[in-house]
Amino acid sequence: MNESATLVSSWLGSVAPHGTAVAAGAIGPAVAFDDSEHAAVAHAIGKRRDEFLTGRSLARRALDELGCPAVAIPVGDRRMPVWPRGYVGSISHSGGLCVAHVGRSGNLASIGIDIELVGALEPDLVRHVCSPEEWAALERNRISDIDPGTLYFSGKEAVYKAYFPVTRAFLDYTDVWLQIDWAQGCFEAQINFGKPSISDGWKVAGRFSRIGDHIVTAVWIERRLT
Q: How far is CA 156 from CA 70, 84, 86, 97, in A?
């Protein structure tokens, strides 16, 4: 495991809910678990195939830590991974690095993880991701070593990855408003009216960090403790 992967695993392990597991590593050649995984990338270019299969391999490693037998992780709606019964998770990759984060379902409804290279977004894309009001709020209290455009893009990606498995509803970037707490390295997500809401019995928690040349964001939808 390279240094960045070790740091990502360590950070996620320190902020994630109890009962979750993380596996991170460099993207490289990997073997499909079965025909369903092979078919998912049979016509993909080599880079895309390596990203997909590395992610699945890391996901199985993380699931193994939770006692889940090795299984295929097929592709479902909107290209989301289909997790084994009783488990939830998320996979992300960027800049040669891949991370898989998994947990047991029950008190944990879903996980969203996203990793992005710092400064990789084109300015035109940032303008589609952030509203002027969001950008102004970010600029007031930003941390110098974290690119706010990348943070907003990554945070909203992580929110969507956690949101879709619960609601089966699509979100555009403008459907999500993030309120960033720079000092604590966390954020809250608000979903626009008109979109399915998360039940009052659940809470959405988001964390972020810059690790080397990457920004990592993670979102968990957890059952509220009463």
A: 30, 25, 25, 19
Tokens of 221: 């939808």
Question: Which portions of the chain are predicted below pLDDT 70?
Answer: 1, 138-139, 141-144, 225-226
Secondary structure element (H or E) that encloses residue 214, with its range: strand 214-223
| Angle formed at CA 33 by CA 32 and CA 35, multiple of 5 degrees | 75
Helix axis angle for 148-167 and 132-141, nearest 10°, is: 120
Tokens of 214: 């990457």
- Give the CB-side neighbour count of residue 114, counting CA atoms within 13 A: 22
**Tokens representing 78?**
């909107």
Strand partners, 94: 97
CA dist 180 and 183 (Å) reads 9
Element (H, E) at 26: strand 20-26
Q: Look at residue 121 in the predicted model and tell me its pLDDT.
A: 79
Strand-pairing partners, residue 102, are 21, 89
Please, how many CA atoms are within 13 Å of residue 134, restricted to the half-sphere of its CB? 25
The rounded mean pLDDT for the chain is 91
Give pLDDT tens digits for 151-170.
999 999 999 999 999 999 99
Structure confidence by residue, pLDDT tens digits, 62-92? 999 999 999 999 999 988 999 999 999 999 9
Which tokens sit at 193? Answer: 């009216």
For position 167, what pLDDT does the model report?
92
Say how many CA atoms lie within 13 Å of 216 toward its Cβ. Answer: 29
